[in-house]
Structure formats: C-alpha cells, structure tokens
C-alpha cells in the first residue's frame, strides 16, 4: 500500500554514548517499513559510541544533522508527513529547524523524561542530547538553525530536569507536564486544535518496557502514551520522531520492544 508518511532512518552517530541506539533505530525502521509498505530513507553512516563532550560531538555529527534536515525539508515540501526513527534526541538539532520553517504554528510535543533544555553554560554532563531543545528554541547556536517558539513547546512526562534547566524552561514559557499531568484531556487543552510535531524519547516510559540509554523511574506506561496519541486528530500531526530505543538490553527482548513500539505508534498512523 502507498503511505502518506516519509520514513526516515538516522544511522549516523549523533553524540551516541552507547552502541544500542543505532541498532534499535534500524530495527524499528525495518518494522515500520514492513507495516507501511514504504522504504526508509537512510541518513548517515554508523560509527562507534564514545563519551565525548558536546563541543566534540556536534561537529562530528554535522553531516548527519544536515542530511536529516534536508530529508525532513524534502518530505514536507513534497506533501508527505515525516516519520523519523532516530538514534538519539540530538538528531533533532537537524529536524526541528526545518519543522519551524515549514510549520511555525505547530505545537512541539517533546515526550521525554528530560527537558533537554540545557545550554553550554548550564550543562553539567556536557551531553549534546541534553541541549537539543534549547538550541532549537534559539538559546544557543548549534550551527544548524533554530526557530522553534518555546511557548509552543510542551514537555510531556518530564521528571528528570536539572535546576538551572528548569529555570530556563520556565523563563522561556515552555510548558512542562509531569507524568501525572500528562493526560489526554490536558494535552488537548494545550494543543487547542493546532498542528503538532511529536518527538518521543522512550525513556519517558517506566523502565522495563522499551529500553533507553537512561532509566528514569515513575514514568508513563505504554497504554498512557497510546492514549495521548489517540487523543490527537490524525490530520493535526505534521511529523513524528521516535528516538532512543536501546537495543541489546538483556532484560527486554528486542522483538518485544519493537512490537510495543509499533502497537503504541499505530495510534498516530491510523
């Protein structure tokens, strides 16, 4: 069958500190490709993980980030809905500026245990993935563009946020919903009929369902994420990013994780 989605797979290292996310992204993209009957456009070439600082990881990822932005720009321009499967949240340094350019009125639903709103001045870990949303909102210059209005960003399921990061989120008008506040009713109220761009980091879930590089307790459950997706009108979705499925976790078989990803996101693919 033909698909309104343009399936894009990130396979270039973007600050990966583990090796499992590139593998996980490929597994999910293969499953989505079979489900949707469409081939994935592959961006980037795999490279080994390492514990580098953002100042090293960012230039190393330049080719992949540029390729992702081009892929999203091309998909939107052709009338397709981008469906991205990425290794790390840092891949959104390339995608979000394209979203802002094409859909300046879109609400960005950042479904993540973390705010990813640190800057070079506030980061304690030096991890590029913890700075991506702040860059997209123009708080620091990644070299890959910005343009997202922070007042149109909703962090869903956020619960592991640094104090300085929390101050930046509040000062810039980002809405942060704890897991308990992340209900379909609240989401519909905040979206208010506007178009949406959806980013999912699987660490938003309670650990044990879909492995992610970071395990943060007291998370949402898969059926709660599915209910959030089901509450959004299909015609409002301008694009979807699925990030940070850490393949190779001994506690959760990869097959089970992939099936759960598909089961959850099918509420967006209806």
Automatic annotation (TrEMBL):
It comes from Microbacterium sufflavum. Pfam families: Arginase. This is Arginase family protein. Keywords: Hydrolase, Manganese, Metal-binding. Transmembrane segments: none annotated. The keyword Ribosomal protein does not apply. Belongs to the arginase family. The keyword Cytoplasm does not apply.
């Amino acid at each position: 069958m033909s698909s309104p989605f343009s399936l894009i797979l990130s396979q270039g290292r973007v600050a990966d500190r583990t090796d499992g996310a590139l593998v996980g992204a490929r597994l999910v993209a293969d499953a989505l490709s079979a489900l949707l009957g469409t081939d994935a456009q592959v961006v980037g070439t795999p490279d080994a993980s390492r514990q580098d600082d953002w100042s090293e990881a960012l230039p190393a990822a330049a080719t992949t980030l540029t390729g992702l932005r081009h892929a999203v720009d091309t998909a939107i321009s052709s009338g397709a809905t981008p469906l991205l499967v990425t290794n790390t949240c840092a891949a959104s340094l390339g995608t979000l500026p394209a979203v802002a350019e094409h859909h300046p009125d879109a609400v960005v639903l950042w479904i993540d245990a973390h705010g990813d709103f640190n800057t070079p001045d506030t980061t304690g870990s030096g991890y590029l993935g913890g700075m991506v949303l702040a860059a997209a909102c123009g708080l620091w210059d990644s070299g890959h563009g910005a343009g997202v209005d922070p007042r149109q960003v909703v962090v869903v399921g956020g619960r592991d946020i640094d104090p300085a990061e929390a101050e930046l989120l509040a000062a810039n008008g980002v809405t942060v919903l704890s897991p308990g506040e992340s209900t379909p009713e609240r989401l519909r109220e905040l979206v208010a009929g506007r178009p949406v761009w959806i980013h999912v980091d699987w660490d938003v879930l309670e650990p044990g369902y879909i492995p992610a590089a970071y395990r943060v307790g007291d998370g949402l459950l898969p059926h709660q994420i599915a209910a959030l997706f089901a509450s959004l009108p299909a015609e409002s979705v301008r694009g979807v990013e699925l990030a940070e499925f850490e393949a190779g976790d001994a506690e959760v078989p990869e097959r089970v994780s992939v099936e759960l990803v598909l089961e959850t996101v099918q509420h967006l693919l209806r």
